[in-house]
Amino acid sequence: QAVPAGSHVRLNLQTGDREAKLPDHEHSKSETRGKRRRKRLGKVDVDSSSFTSQELKKALAKMKEIEKAERKVSSLFLKQSMVRKKFRPIEQLKEEFEKLNVKMETDYEIMVKLISKYNSSTSSLDEKVAALYDLEYYVHQV
């Protein structure tokens, strides 16, 4: 919870509660400062003349940061939509290749075939060596 600036804050180690107390010299100051504090509602001042220059600078910096973040997000969405226009999903590509009688395989599928070829008892020694060389290529990619 927000506490006024200059408050004394402590952590009670027995109860685990955080406690805040206004300093004693705060109560003896002029009544106008007390009135100004009472007009604050959370983080917003009701009386605009009570803004300090530091508060205004912080608010302006936060506004600039939020604007930069919003610009960054909107540019990211724009880039994603441009990429989506350039590329098609893999399912669509597979369908188009099937229409052309071309089978598209993933690296995983190829590696499984190479391992089964190597383990096959009907494969010759040359086929097994070739399967190992091809498998080495795919393993290095992974």
TrEMBL record:
The keyword Transport applies. GO terms for cellular component: endoplasmic reticulum. One of its GO terms (molecular function) is adenyl-nucleotide exchange factor activity. InterPro entries: Hsp70_NEF-Inhibitors. Residues 1-48 are annotated as: Disordered. One of its GO terms (biological process) is protein transport. This is SIL1 factor. The lineage of its organism: Eukaryota, Metazoa, Chordata, Craniata, Vertebrata.
